[in-house]
Amino acid sequence: MASAARIRPLGSSTLSVPTNLSITSSRRTFASASRLSSFTTRPRGAPRTAFNKPLLRQSFRRTESTQAPIVKKSSGFRTFLRWTWRLTYLSALGGTAYVCYGIWESRHPPDQSDPDPSKKTLVVLGTGWGSVSLLKNLDTENYNVIVISPRNYFLFTPLLPSCTTGTIEHRSIMEPVRNFLRHKKASVKFYEAEATRIDYEKRIVFINDDSEIKGEINSTEVPFDMLVVGVGAENATFGIPGVREHGMFLKEVGDAQQIRKRIMDCCETATFKDQSPEEVKRLLHMVVVGGGPTGVEFAGELQDFFESDLKKWIPEIVDNFHVTLVEALPNVLPMFSKQLIEYTEKTFDEEKITIRTRTMVKNVTDKYIEAQSTGPDGKPKLEKIPYGLLVWATGNALRPVVKDLMGQIPAQKESRRGLAVNEYLVVKGTENIWAVGDCAIANYAPTAQVAAQEGAFLARLFNQMAKTIEIEDELKQCSDAQERAPTKEARDQVFMQIKELQKRLRRVKQIGPFEYSHQGSLAYIGSEKAVADISWLTGNFATGGTLTYFFWRSAYLSMCFSTRNRVLVVVDWIKSKLFGRDVSRE
Length: 586
Known about the structure:
This protein is 43% helix and 19% strand. It has a five-stranded parallel beta sheet with strand order 5-2-1-9-21, with no helix packed on it. It has a five-stranded parallel beta sheet with strand order 11-18-12-13-14. A hairpin with a 4-residue loop joins strand 6 and strand 7 (204-208). The chain is globular and about 100 Å long. The protein starts with a helix and ends in a 7-residue tail after the last helix. Residues 518-582 form the External alternative NADH-ubiquinone oxidoreductase-like C-terminal domain. This is NADH:ubiquinone reductase (non-electrogenic). GO terms for molecular function: NADH dehydrogenase (quinone) (non-electrogenic) activity.
């Protein structure tokens, strides 16, 4: 009995076998069986299976480890680069899509409505900054618009100096007038002709076809109800003999082409066999008269042309090529701040461009100019300056059609520099004639910026005038309807409409006079440097240098008239940078 009591079943024993021990034993048994099986099935003499012990240890550690895997965090700089790349990629896609849409839109003009004979005829003379700004913002459905100009394109004049050296091709800054007129809501008539005379009393413009090919009719009359004069100005010679005969101007595309041809003529003639040293020096002396933005930019472009291309391909001219800038005032760029003037003069000195201030041209011959300057002793002296190229980039003069119109209006008798206008740009002494741009005297500098703002102002004025006429017609109809209303309720309803129309009329008529907002001044000074005097809040921000040069380029690029112009200008910049400027003579 005692032995029976000592023998107890295994399941009721207090000493239990650990579970993991039994599992491990079973695993070992299976492993032993596997090894035994492999041992028994391996042929005699065959090599044993090789085990990678380090790999087995790593696998065992991974299996037995209870720690979470370590995730490497990317650095902040890598994240910044990743997002920068994504934003750049998206920006490039968006910019490409915008350019493509702009090109497609310019190539697919919409349908236009025909002119309404019952509406007033608005005649616009010229296709310069003021006229084009007016046409761009004008709602042509309100008027029968007629445009008259001797050139059928708009010229982006700030980049014209770059055309003289081949940095930009002239067609890249030309926008055909018919391109943007075709995109207006109502059709606009365009006549490529010169306005020879304006009959103010009869409201007629006399035009003449000056093209090389003429039809049976090459002169006619155009009646108008409203007239905008935006014909610009001519080059002023100030009565100096020989300027018009021997000098070259820089106002039109043809001027830039002639200057470009003359530059290469001078260089090639200077290298002609047996040319005397004095004649070589004269031919390679380029004189620019006028220290404003146009003259300064042309001098900088010309020196860049020499440094980058001419002296590389025509090394014979290296020692004699020279650029001189002549200005009658005490300094160049008088509209800029003093520090920018000094910076420009310093840059020109580094570029070896001579600046001669307080020097007045008295006479021009085919080989030299006579100039009067002030000597060190303060006394004036007259000297002869030989030149090969003379570019006259200063002053504006009235066109004959403007002079004739001023002679017809008594209120314009005292005006000498152009058509005097009031605060709404109405020509004084008239009721239906407006003037914009260089031909108008509005107490502002004759710049493209002023002309563009004047044109935009006139567009708003004309649009509101059309709305005023429309509302007044509706008021007249409502007044008639109120008188014919059969009941008091109907009369009250019409009265409420009249009150609403009167409110709209007051809002429309609340347009103030023209106020010029100066955005700043820019000028390229050569060596990939520029100066900028920009209006900032209540003051001016003056800067100059290479960064300003990139700002100058981006600003002018954004100011180009169309997407087509922007693309062509960028392509020209890239071409001139990669392949250089063309030195062939046309």
